[in-house]
Amino acid sequence: MAGFVPPARLLSRKVHLIPGQLHVAELFFEVPKNYADPSAGTLKLFGRSVRKHEKPVTPLGVKELDALDKLPYLVYLEGGPGFGNREPQDSSLTRYVLNRGYQLLFLDYRGTGLSTPINAQHLRSLGGPQAQADYLKLFRADNNVRDCEAVRKCLTADFPDDRKKWSIFGQSFGGFVSLSYLSKFPLGLREVFMTGGLAPIRRTAEEVYRATYKKTIERNEAYYRKYPEDIENVHRVVEYLRKTKPVLPSGGVLTAQRFLSFGISFGAHGGLDSIHSLVLKLVADLDQFGFLTRSSLVATEQHNPFDTNPIYAILHEPIYCFTKGIASRWAASRVGAENENFLWTQDESHITKGKPIYFTGEMIFPFHFDTYPELAEIKEAANILAEFDGWDDLYDELQLRRNDVPVYAASFIDDMYVDFNLARETAGLVGSIAAYETNSMYHNAVRAKSGEVLDQLFRLRDDSLD
Questions:
Q1: Percentage of residues in the chain having pLDDT higher than 70
Q2: 264 and 402: one domain?
Q3: Is 443 a catalytic residue?
Q4: Cis ω on the peptide bond leading into residue 56 (within 30° of 0)?
Q5: Does residue 233 share a domain with residue 172?
Q6: Annotated catalytic residue, options 108, 307, 396, 415
Q7: Are 196 and 245 members of one domain?
Q8: Which among 205, 227, 232, 233 is positioned nearest to 271, based on CA atoms?
Q9: Rounded distance between C-alpha atoms, residue 255 and residue 240, angstroms
Q10: What pLDDT digit, counting tens, does each position of 163-182 carry?
Q11: Judgement on whether residues 317 and 407 belong to the same structural domain of the protein
Q12: Residues 303 and 193 in one domain
């Protein structure tokens, strides 16, 4: 397990009441930038704690108010990597969890949201590509859990002993973080929930992508079955983009390769429809004007927001580098080159007329660092990280096997992002786990079908399934 982590320092706390009778505290913390070298400086973390705003008939006394402030915490760990949290009132989790007697903490991972967010301008101020890469190495799950533990010690310092532990809820990459947390700081945890987050803890990026490319092919086939007219429409858009390579309103270039990587949406509820709607909009422009309007170009920028969430692109493959000696080396690109459906990821000239063009899924490619302006500025640092093989361990398999913290996991058979068979393999390695497996939901079920998936997870916890 990991070593000692000092408590975070609370820098500020501002309380607001928001519509729907929610009591929200906006919190800024200070934590070490590098836990192995506390003298290296600090980072700021941002989070929002949420509880019900009680309006009793008679005013609450000091003891009652104190009890509300010391409700047990459940911490939501967002997917990604690279995304901060939405407003609490916009989360499907908020009211469900508050009604279960918790207070909820939305904590932005370091480098995301308002937690010293990664951006090219700041990275340039640190020095050249190697200095930038060394800084980015500090933003993986191992330090995410150190931050969480530091914040837990800060927020629960004056809690009763039976409430100092907290619960965590990991969605997607948040599940990866949860498994790292169980590996390094299990004594800080009461229980763990996760949805679509059973990380392939002993599989390399190459093994992961060989599995997820297969599911991506299935989702492409489902897309073209549902919208057969898009076989021709996608060809029309791709042909136009190959000829013109339009510059996007906020910079960057809409190449055919960038467009064809929007298939990441296929893994979510409504994802096939969202891509069809975009294709329809682009084709309508070509029919009516012969070019893509600003409205359509802006719409394309809403897919794969790597410019505003660069960690997603920079550190996506390193989430599979689970121990020393493993480098990603642009694994998605290398594995894609093994399949004729994805040869276009190497060169657009491989696109064949008449055949359906397959979109890629949750994969990052070197061409992203040529077509997104924010990523282009840190391309050299990304190449250094792709070759780096000195990563610290993300998981402790022995600790996970002897784990006694209750874990409740929802796993999706048709998950395009976290392969179901690899997830089941991981479930078999973790002690004290109860898993709910279903083929009626996709990866974003916690948002799209929140009531169903949350009910199932809490039934696992409450042992009401028979």
A1: 95
A2: no
A3: yes
A4: no
A5: no
A6: 415
A7: no
A8: 227
A9: 9
A10: 999 999 999 999 999 999 99
A11: no
A12: no
Spatial CA neighbour of 272 closest among 282, 257, 262, 281: 262
Into how many domains does the chain fold? 2
Which residue matches tokens 């967010």?
A: 117
Same domain for 404 and 260:
no
According to DSSP, residue 8 is labeled P
φ, ψ of residue 167 in degrees (nearest 5): -95, 155
Catalytic residue among 23, 316, 368, 443: 443
Which of the two residues, 232 and 17, has the higher pLDDT score? Answer: 232
With a CB cutoff of 8 Å and minimum separation 6, the contacts of 311 are 80, 81, 82, 111, 112, 118, 136, 139
Q: Kind and range of the H or E element at 447?
A: helix 445-448
pLDDT at 395 over 80: yes
Residue in the structure block whose two tokens are 């190495």? 137
Single out the catalytic residue among 49, 172, 178, 265. Answer: 172
157 and 305 in a single domain? The answer is no
Which residues form the domain of 156? 9-201+394-462
339, 359, 387: which is the final residue of a domain? 387
The distance between the two most distant Cα atoms of the chain, rounded to a whole number of Å, is: 74
Amino acid in the structure at residue 192 = V
Examine the domain organization and report whether 441 and 335 are in the same domain: no
Domain membership flag for residue 2: no
Backbone torsion region of residue 160, taken as left when φ is above 0, otherwise alpha when ψ lies between -120 and 50, otherwise beta: beta
Q: Alpha carbon 165 to chain centroid distance? A: 24
Place of tokens 């003298």: 39
The pLDDT tens digits of the residues spanning 297-342 come to 999 998 999 999 999 999 999 999 999 999 999 999 999 999 999 9
Instruction: Please confirm, yes or no, whether 295 is among the known catalytic residues.
Output: no
Where b means 16+ CB within 10 Å and e means fewer, 128-163 reads: ebeebbbbbbbbbbbbbbbbbbbbbebbbeebeeee
CA–CA distance, 301 with 394 (Å, rounded to integer): 33
pLDDT tens for each residue of 25-39? 999 999 999 999 999
